Amino acid sequence: MSDSLLITHATLITLGASCRVLNDQDIYIEDGLIREIAASVNRKADQKLDASGKIVLPGFINAHMHCYSTFARGLTKTEPASSFLPVLKNLWWRLDKALSLEDCYYSALVVLLEAIRHGTTTLIDHHASPCAIRGSLDAIARAFRETGLRGCLCYEVSDRDGARATQEGLEENRDFILACKERNDPFIKALFGLHASFTLTDVTLKAAARLGSGLGTGFHIHVAESIADQEYTRAQYGKGVVERLYEQGILVPGSIAAHAVQVDEKEMALLAQSGAAVVHNPQSNLNNAVGIADIVAMQKHGILVGLGTDAMTTRMSEEVRAAIWCQHFLHNNPSVGFDAAVSALLLHNAKIARRIFAAPLGEIAVDAAADLIFVDYDPATPLHQENWMGQIVFGVSQATVDTTIVAGRVLMRDKKLLLDLDEREVYLRARERVAALWERL
Ligand SMILES: [Zn+2]
């Protein structure tokens, strides 16, 4: 790793609260932070990269991910599902039970190599492996350390697999959060993970709330992803999902409520009041036919709405396009939702990540974290201050990421990974593991 890095001749889209487009700039990086941005930086650096002909952006952030889902790609041994619950029961809850600790590690490794290739530098993961709970977050953290990306991890506690799995899930979160606090590693952080209202009893929610608040940590939980979560929660507890989780102390500032597809205006107001962020995952919602979250209405309520992929892809520039089309369709108006979707990815994900990492992520500015990507995009139309969002959605998203840098460390250059890992070997081992895992299903 170089201590200092000089990037020259970059066209910057800085993002941040007052995004700027700057041509032919040099960026000087030292100890993981951007120290100087100027037309010409006159400093010596350990490493120099020419960014001529590239667009330089902050690395993308994926605010809701399940690395283990990698191992479902191409799986055919599942019964067809006609609604959301059978999707969980026929596929995900069979797959997660078959995962070993080594599977957790390899599934994460594969995803993270792809994330580097697609310019995603921070991922907020939500993990389940009910037959290999203890140590699973360390296994995933090992994959993050070996790839150099930033990760926020959690174990999704659920009562669906019995009392022992519940207890182990609570302990795995507690111990991993404590270890993160002790190590104070700027790359690996934790939230307290919970599956969803409909698989969690009040006893378990209370235990999680007590542990999480004692540790000063927010929660990462699926909220009203499908109508089934609302129906079960109302029938069982006489209130909606948001109200229940709010009253139990799960929706607090720093928490992530993934999905929030099936929430009404009253619940949106409560989400806003709670201080929790909502993370929208449009491709997953369409794939599971659970509906489209109204992120325009949520943002009007003052909710911080970010964007995740729920493991559908590591390519955030693909997910943001789906988010835009979904809002157009939902509101039956091609002028509604563009800003809401683009700001979810490019502004709000940075705010969500900053809460967790306590680092200046998601912006090119002096003293910001040097998490940067170079994209092979030489615009055929003018790129300027007023149209950078459209250039990213319709142009940059279609181009290849050339270089990925995290905290000043170059992880990929000229589309070649610069890691102490043999990529082909990783894929070979992953395929072997997946074949054995599918046999166990
Ligand atoms: Zn999810």
User: How many domain regions?
Assistant: 2
* Main beta-sheet strand count, sense and barrel state: 9 strands, mixed
Any idea of the CATH topology of the largest domain? TIM Barrel
Spatial shape: globular
* Bound heterogens, unique: zinc ion
CATH class of the largest domain: Alpha Beta
Can you give a write-up of this model?
With 441 residues, this protein is an alpha/beta fold. It has helices at residues 84-98, 101-117, 136-147, 163-183, 202-215, 227-237, 241-247, 265-274, 282-287, 295-300, 316-331, 338-357, 388-394, 423-440, and strands at residues 4-13, 21-30, 33-38, 47-50, 55-58, 60-65, 120-125, 150-153, 188-190, 192-196, 219-223, 256-259, 277-280, 305-307, 372-375, 401-406, 409-413, 416-417. Helix 2 (101-117) runs parallel beside helix 3 (136-147), helix 2 packs across helix 14 and helix 11 crosses helix 12. The longest helix has 21 residues, at 163-183. Strands 1, 2, 3, 4, 5, 15, 16, 17 and 18 form a 9-stranded mixed sheet that branches. A 5-stranded parallel sheet has the order 10-11-12-13-14. Strands 6-7-8-9 form a 4-stranded parallel sheet, with helices on both faces. Zinc ion (ZN) binds next to loops. The site of zinc ion (ZN) has 6 residues, from loops.
Q: What is the element layout, followed by pairings?
A:
Layout: E1 4-13, E2 21-30, E3 33-38, E4 47-50, E5 55-58, E6 60-65, H1 84-98, H2 101-117, E7 120-125, H3 136-147, E8 150-153, H4 163-183, E9 188-190, E10 192-196, H5 202-215, E11 219-223, H6 227-237, H7 241-247, E12 256-259, H8 265-274, E13 277-280, H9 282-287, H10 295-300, E14 305-307, H11 316-331, H12 338-357, E15 372-375, H13 388-394, E16 401-406, E17 409-413, E18 416-417, H14 423-440
Parallel strand pairs: 1-4, 1-5, 6-7, 7-8, 8-9, 10-11, 11-12, 12-13, 13-14
Antiparallel strand pairs: 1-2, 2-3, 5-15, 15-16, 16-17, 17-18
The chain binds zinc ion.
